[in-house]
Structure to design on (483 residues):
């Protein structure tokens, strides 16, 4: 694959960004376009490793050495077909995936891995630039109807798969626009929303119907849905926010990350003219509690608002820069991650637990109290370090503590089970205890990643198609359907 010995001759190149001072001026994506010749060179680093661990590292089973080889040989169009054969939306994963494929790249044992994600993003963008990506309508219709509840990446991937084999698909979304967390969680500086619109336009042209502002269980009753559709997919995400049950958590100035980010995404989309003060970080001392993607997005957004200072608290210990012996290749490396938002300005504090929020007499937040902790790496339990209490002044706290599972009203109305992790229960065929009701994405696996949501949407589609037709030709990870 690629160029024999290419990995010995060529160094890894990462995507380049606009300087921080420029990118903080607005909410646009700030990556610089890579030269095609440079990318062709980068794909030459993919070596003939024999067992490409990247295949299994990727939840979609992307055929990475194959598209690298095609890019190296300047066959971008063919590379696009290979990429699309396993991934409905490389434009999302190519921008946003933490790239477990790169963590398991064999070259990574001795050298920086192949820049797989960068190559993926450029294959898909080359496809859109050249208008190679066209709607593909099914040749015939089966007469079966499938309702998809939720239009995040899981629901969108399932809609495209199931439509491709001729079922009539209606996607119901309770928000005013399609996309799930891609639309109202992830900020534009990571994913401009015209990237979602561009893809949804194609899905519509393929024949998929989208109904926004429809909250299933509230605006459309379950009985109606069951009567009109032969199968239902629940892909409603993991939307129950985790709270911090400590004194002062109801003070003005303590906000949930998703409320803050949704508000900002609507502001950037001109749905709101100006920021509500509670969601405006301008000239405020902001503390973001919780790391992860959500915390990082709150840091980037606060800096774009013009916050006076941004601090990030993490309960866990500061990870090392390199893998330790209990976390070897090809597993996901639990090492220090520095995102583009971290680079834009934040003070990161580790092993720290927030004990209480402090307010003034008007119930406005003016600070918080913390204690340092010692985290036991094997059990995850932590002990407070005596006499380590500290008061931090702040005007705004953003809680980025993750989600505890899907909201229960819909599963309850559909009479499907919730498991002991708080997620919608299904068997290995993504089927709930009701034969005609399936589930996929964060509501099934718990809060996760876009690449997993797409993968779940594709896998569930295979099982829905098989349920409707007795067999299915839809591809699955590492297989090509039943035939
Ligand atoms: C701030 C933030 C940043 C993130 N950044 C990244 C990242 O950089 N990379 C990455 O890989 N992952 C990231 N993630 C995780 C990723 O976004 C999710 O794993 C993914 O979106 C889950 O997809 P999903 O389709 O399962 O659900 P969602 O994207 O949550 O979509 C579910 C949809 O269902 C709708 N819905 C719910 N109930 C109903 C109902 N009753 N009727 C109609 N519609 C309903 C919701 O409105 C929503 O639109 C991030 C998450 C957050 C919160």
């Amino acid at each position: 694959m690629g160029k024999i010995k290419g990995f010995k001759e060529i160094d890894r190149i990462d995507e380049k960004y606009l300087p921080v001072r420029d990118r903080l001026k607005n909410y646009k994506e700030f990556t610089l376009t890579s030269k095609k010749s440079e990318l062709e060179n980068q794909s030459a680093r993919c070596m003939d490793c024999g067992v490409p661990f990247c295949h299994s590292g990727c939840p979609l089973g992307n055929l990475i050495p194959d598209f690298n080889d095609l890019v190296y040989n300047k066959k971008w169009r063919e590379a696009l077909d290979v990429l699309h054969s396993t991934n409905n939306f490389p434009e999302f994963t190519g921008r946003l995936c933490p790239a477990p494929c790169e963590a398991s790249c064999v070259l990574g044992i001795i050298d920086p891995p192949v820049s797989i994600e960068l190559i993926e993003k450029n294959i898909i963008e080359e496809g859109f630039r050249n208008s190679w990506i066209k709607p593909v309508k099914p040749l015939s219709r089966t007469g079966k109807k499938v309702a998809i509840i939720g239009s995040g990446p899981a629901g969108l991937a399932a809609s495209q798969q199931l439509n491709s084999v001729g079922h009539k698909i209606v996607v119901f979304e309770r928000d005013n626009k399609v996309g799930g967390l891609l639309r109202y969680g992830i900020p534009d500086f990571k994913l401009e929303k015209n990237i979602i619109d561009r893809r949804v336009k194609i899905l519509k042209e393929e024949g998929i119907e989208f109904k926004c502002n429809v909250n299933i269980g509230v605006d459309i009753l379950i009985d109606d849905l069951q009567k009109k559709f032969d199968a239902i997919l629940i892909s409603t995400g993991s939307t129950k926010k985790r709270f911090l049950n400590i004194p002062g958590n109801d003070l003005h100035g303590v906000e949930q990350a998703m409320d803050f980010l949704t508000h900002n995404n609507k502001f950037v989309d001109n749905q709101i003219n100006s920021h509500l003060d509670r969601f405006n970080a301008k000239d405020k001392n902001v503390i973001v509690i919780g790391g992860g993607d959500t915390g990082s997005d709150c840091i980037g957004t606060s800096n774009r608002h013009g916050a006076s200072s941004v601090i990030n608290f993490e309960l866990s210990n500061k990870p090392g820069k390199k893998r330790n012996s209990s976390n070897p290749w090809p597993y996901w490396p639990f090492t220090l991650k520095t995102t583009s938002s971290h680079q834009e300005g934040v003070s990161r504090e580790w092993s720290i637990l927030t004990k209480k929020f402090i307010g003034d007499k008007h119930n406005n937040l003016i600070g918080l109290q913390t204690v340092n902790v010692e985290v036991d790496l094997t059990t995850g339990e932590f002990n407070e370090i005596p006499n380590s209490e500290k008061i931090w002044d702040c005007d705004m706290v953003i809680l980025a503590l993750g989600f505890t599972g899907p909201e229960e009203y819909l599963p309850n109305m559909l009479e499907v089970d919730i498991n002991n992790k708080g997620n919608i229960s299904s068997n290995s065929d993504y089927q709930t205890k009701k034969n005609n009701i399936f589930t996929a994405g964060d509501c099934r696996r718990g809060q996760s990643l876009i690449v997993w949501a797409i993968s779940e949407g594709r896998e569930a589609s295979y099982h829905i198609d098989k349920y409707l037709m007795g067999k299915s030709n839809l591809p699955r990870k590492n297989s090509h359907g039943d035939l």
The chain has three domains: 6-129, 145-239+404-469, 243-401. The chain has a mean pLDDT of 96. The domain at 6-129 is CATH 1.10.1060.10 (Fumarate Reductase Iron-sulfur Protein; Chain B, domain 2).
